[in-house]
């Protein structure tokens, strides 16, 4: 059974976010494992407006390219430059050092608890 941190919220598109302000956003271990070795990240710039449910970037792996969806509406406050420089961080630490962006949130889109997300992905 997959172990998803209970302090995070999740989306059906395999993104996670925490409750901090600005909110930290990343992709789940399930997404990272399905993608395989991540080799490139395309993320929004600091100051960019993002909308819950909208595409905000791409995650490219040796297997495929997947769109990244924002779980929140708000303004990008920070981008994880370490993950851009070394995308394998997302595979190695999807819930820690491999976070993607931080957003000053004005509205949260539909999110799931860890238990709901685990049930969704068959964990």
Automatic annotation (TrEMBL):
Family annotation (CDD domains): GCS_H
Matches recorded under PROSITE patterns: BIOTINYL_LIPOYL, LIPOYL
Pfam families associated with the record: GCV_H
UniProt cofactor(s): (R)-lipoate
Lipoyl-binding domain ranges (all copies): 22-104
Cofactor note: Binds 1 lipoyl cofactor covalently.
UniProt keywords, alphabetically: Lipoyl
Modified residues (N6-lipoyllysine): 63
Highest taxon, organism lineage: Bacteria
Record carries keyword Thylakoid: no
Family note: Belongs to the GcvH family.
Self-association and partners: The glycine cleavage system is composed of four proteins: P, T, L and H.
HAMAP family with a match to the protein in the record: GcvH (MF_00272)
Protein's job: The glycine cleavage system catalyzes the degradation of glycine. The H protein shuttles the methylamine group of glycine from the P protein to the T protein.
Name the UniProt record assigns to this protein: Glycine cleavage system H protein
């Amino acid at each position: 059974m997959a172990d998803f941190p209970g302090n995070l919220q999740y989306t059906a598109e395999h993104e996670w976010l925490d409750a901090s302000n600005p909110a930290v956003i990343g992709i789940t271990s399930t997404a990272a494992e399905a993608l395989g070795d991540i080799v490139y990240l395309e993320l929004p710039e600091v100051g960019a407006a993002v909308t819950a449910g909208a595409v905000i970037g791409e995650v490219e792996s040796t297997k495929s390219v997947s769109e990244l969806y924002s779980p929140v509406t708000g303004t990008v406050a920070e981008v994880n430059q370490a993950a851009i420089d070394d995308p394998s961080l997302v595979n190695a630490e999807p819930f820690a050092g491999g976070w993607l962006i931080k957003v000053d949130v004005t509205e949260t889109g539909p999110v799931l608890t860890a238990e709901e997300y685990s049930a969704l992905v068959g964990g």
